[in-house]
Amino acid sequence: MRSRGANWQLSFCGYGYGDAVIETSPVDPQPGANRVEYRRGSLTEWYVNGPIGVEQGFTISERPGKVTGQPLTIALSVSGDWRTTTAGQRSLTLTGRDGRGTLQYAGLSAYDANGKELQASMELRGNRLLLKVDDASARYPVVVDPWLQRARLTATDGGIDDQLGWSVAISGNTVVLGSPFWQAGGGQSPGAAYVFLKPASGWKDMTQTAKLTNSDGLQNGTFFGYAVAIEGGTIVVGALNLPLLGAGRTHTPQSTPAPGAYVFVKPKGGWKDMTETAKLTASDPQDFDYFGCSVSMSGNTVVVGANQFGFGQSTGPGKTYVYVKPARGWKRATENARLTASDGVLDDLNGNSVSISGNTVVSGAPNHASRGAVYVFVKPARGWKNMTQTAELSVAKKNDSGGFGNAVAIFGNTVVSGAWAVKFNQNAVGAAYVFVEPASGWKNMTQTAKLTIPHFPFTFDFGYSVDLKGNMLAIGAPAWPYGTGVGSAYLFVKPSSGWKTTSRFAAKLVPSDSALDDRFGFSVAVDGATIVSGATAAGGSHDSPGAGYVFTK
Question: What pTM was estimated for this model as a whole?
Answer without folding.
Answer: 0.76
